[in-house]
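Example 3.2
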Amino acid sequence: MTDDGLNFLVGEEPRLDNLLLAGDVLPLLRALVAAGAAGACLADPAGVEIFGAGEPDAEEMLADLTLFLEGEPVARVRVRGDAARRRELVALAELLRTALDTVLRSSLKRALTTGVHTTVVQQSYQELLLKNEELTLSEARYRELARTLEERVQERTEELRRALAHLLQQEKMAAIGQLAAGVAHEINNPLGFITSNLHTLQKYVSRFGTMLAFYRDHLALDLPLETVADQAELKWRELKLTPALDDVGDLLSQSLSGAERVTRIVADLKGFSHVDEAGEMPVDLNLELERTVTVLSSQLAGRAEIIRELQALPPVVCQPQLPGQIFLNLIQNALTHGGTHPTITLATCCDGERIRISVADDGPGVPTGLRGQIFEPFFTTLPVGSGTGMGLAVVWEAALRMGGTVAVADAPGGGAEFVVTIPIVKEASHVQIR
């Protein structure tokens, strides 16, 4: 902070330890160690450890994966462990790199958004202070400025809106960073019981090995088969192998189910962010809606009931990131303002020309006097520090980019209903920035 205001260099290269915090990285590294790795760490490009878990120098290096930011290598994910489990641990290392890449990109976008917004607001504030001093010093100048005030306000508003067009584009994807903790929790749950099952299987395998050794040793003694059979039966009961055999199938089935769940979570997160897709393409809005609900599952679990009333929809050609931005912010808005345990109804339909997507809650609704303001940037009814007021502004801008509209009304039975209408064939004249 200087006398001239807050200076933020947008092009300045951020430090990795400012983008990836211990609270983001260490739980993932520890989860990897809990899954069977001897050691896991995040190092800088030169190999110097930044965060680590387990025993980084133990056993064989199984994975050394590079993490990139803006095309440049910024960190390395290193995993050591038993070579016999190479395939499993390398797959988990790839999963860890994907999660860290998502956190890193989201943190960078959030930092850039905050810096640009702060600069714009501070510059506008300083200019307004200067104008206020000039108005106080000269009545004649005041009258002149009063005559042109409306024109100046309009010009300033247009400049702010142009700046917001850039801010909103970064703000949309910054929301993914807020989901990182929830996704990590969703991944840790199946990894937890997979690890537990593997420990149990390890004990069972040890018992089976003991039994096989018993057979080998007693058969070598050339004892009567009846004697060996009787002693083997006693040993079998001593090791409790019958319930162990009964339990092995369930343990394997549960572990495979957990691994598939982790795969689905990562696939849904990647599909939601569309990090590998650019330009316009056909998009299934029902699929995007389901992906959004899956990504938000950690926030919705135990807090809200989701009701789906989805009809078959034709694909819509658009940028694939836009529907997710709309659905994410509308569902989070319903979760925030719909009461302590809202029922959120998601409905879609098509009349042949336009697709209608509705997100309704059973909360207190939106007062009529506020319906003309809720889509304005930075407008919020939450206490200071509790919300940025950008969520519904992102919805408005994304809907316009898809050639559609968004409106709010009273939901049937009470509450608020946000309705997004998208034409099947987008008209260029509808696409404009607010």
